[in-house]
Amino acid sequence: MNFELDEEQVMLKTSARDFLEKECPKELVREIMEDDEKGYSPELWKKMAELGWLGLSFPEKYGGADFTFLDLAVLLEECGRALVPGPLVPTVVQVGHTILAAGTEEQKQEILPRMINGELILTLAFMEENGSLEASGMTVKAEKSGDNYVINGTKLFVPDANVADYLLCVTRTTDGANKEEGITLFLVDAKSDGVQVEILKTMTGEKLCEVVFNNVSVPAKNVLGEVDKGWQVVEKMKHEAEVAEAAWMTGGARWALDTTIDYAKERIAFERPIGSFQAIQHKLAEIALEVEGSTSIMYYAAWAITEDTSDIPMAASMAKSWCGESYKHAVFDGVQIHGGIGFTWDHDMHLYFKRAKAGEVNFGDSDYHREKVAKLLEM
Amino acid sequence: MDFSLTPEEEAFKKEVNDWLDENMKDLPDWYVRNDGSGPEMESEEQQAFSREWHKKLYAAGYVGIAWPKEYGGRGATLMEQVIFNEEMAKRRAPMGAGGLGVGWAGPTIIAAGTEEQKKRFLPKILSGEEVWCQGFSEPGAGSDLKNIQTRAVEDGDYYVVNGQKVWTTGGMRADWAILLARTNFDPDIPKQRGISYFLLDMHAPGVTVRPLREMTGYALFGETFLDDVRIHKSLMVGEKDRGFYISMGTLEFERSNASSAVGLLSSINELIALARDMQRNTDPVTRQKIAQFYIEANVAKYIGLRALTRQLRGMTPGPESAVGSALTQEMGQRLQDYAMYLQGPYSRLVRGSKYAIKNGSWQRSFLNSRGNTIATGTSEVKRNIIAQRTLGLPRWV
To answer: Which of A351, B17, B281, B384 has the fewest C-beta atoms under 10 angstroms from its C-beta?
Structure first.
């Protein structure tokens, strides 16, 4: 029994924090948040590639470092703490890992090394106007036409499509009674004719896009996995995305907790530090309990993915549900305990506050995941 | 990170389970059915059952497994203790009698007692021949334990003790008590520096125990009155005036109980069964609630495993253990509350009533659960501990 980070993971965490404090200060986060075009910093992206972060969890033969998903979770936790803007998780987890899991050797060779060295940005075109995360929500059609498939329809909430080189598009190729059959995944060159990207304005400044596929022709060799059998691949991807988001949120929640504790020690009201009031102490103890819980359940879920255990769906849903609620709690009370200053644009708390609300619904809200847990318990 | 057990630990787990397979076969029907048809908790039949089970555990070497071998224990590793507690909780094995002696009095005597005390008391704690209770809390000193008023005044080779104790678990049946009493009355020293730790013969002249009836209607606890009770000096544990610190060690020992989350997971299984029986299991709101309990119990479990890892590295459970215990106790209460809620009008029926679900077992455990966030320090005090000792927030001055 050993449930703590090993030396290497602690080093990764420490060096990531040091690097991000220097290279991803809040000025940069704010600048990108208010920038209408890119939504990420190409300079920071390049540096992250040079540090090997983009290839951390990929095999050496593609230029990766051969670390585990758990190691990646450690890194993502720090990125969430620093609010690293841009397509890190979509590129590495949603698409990169999915190519690694389901792609042909040719697809892996073509994309992964260039993704890992920072040349290619990848993203996932998954949700649609119906907002569903289930197979029944997938209506964008792909139809066979000679050696190609032709995709038609609209994907919504696609992160960073404005800068992506490839879109991993989840399409419906066959429509039968069982909605989980007939799903096919395509790697679509974002510059293909008929792909139209429009940026949606978001509260966090993160770039979510509408992507319209208008008779987009994709060669059959760009099918990822098997035709009509894509949903299993999507399920696996979803669990990794859930845990990645949980890690991201845990990092942010920890920042909010640390920052608020520091403030409560320093801020004087009624001739004493506000942190000596039990009303404040109990709030902070509560958040500390919850964030401690986030760290614990998130690492467990990341470990389950690393070891490929049968507990992955349960662990991922527990982590996503818990971490989403505890992040929100941490930033809501973070604003409250900061008082007036916490409500200002100048203070950084609102950046986390907004990210918490975004993370809460990303890849399924807490109710959604509790229902998954109920199903897995065969309730 | 590695959640697997070593081959030795696996072998121990198997040994425990084999033993439970063999010995749980003979449990009475009412216990196996778990339908509330068993005897009353305080009845002689129930007590006899607990004593019988304790004897079996003792014969198999499963009482006080954490104790060093030289004192009759097994010298089990921390990991073996966790495995043992978890398997017992998972299998819903009965609790033996003598928990307080084995879990509190014994470890304290081992840690701070004299050789004579060890020889005299430890064997009988293990065998269950002598039953122990605890005399810490007083009407004016609960969570604020350092405020105790019971006085122990030197008189030759004896201390003469006067005062009143409360919340004496099983005091009516106990042979011995671990007792805290004030031995230094200097008003200028901090209160916690004037308290000593004694072993008290509950049959001694001047000791009176009255049952203390709780909101459950039962009397699991007692009030203990001490009138000129003479305790020989050889029955003091550790140094004079250092008793408060000795008792704090015992409290942290209790708080580090790593298997409580496993117990909660068993309760959730029963809650799911109840939801099915009440045909509420398809109701989305009910499903949300129960799933949340399950998530919380697991979060508590993994917080516990991280704390356990630190303990395995040789660090004490410390204030972090307050984190886990606050979580499990409060959750246990909410779970009990919800189990009542799920029963609708049936929740009003208690033991002995026609139509009562599981013969009122939930009603009993619901009422009982309200004490969980009070005993061993209220939730509020635990939050103070977390805030001040873990987060480093300033104390009110």
So the answer is: B17
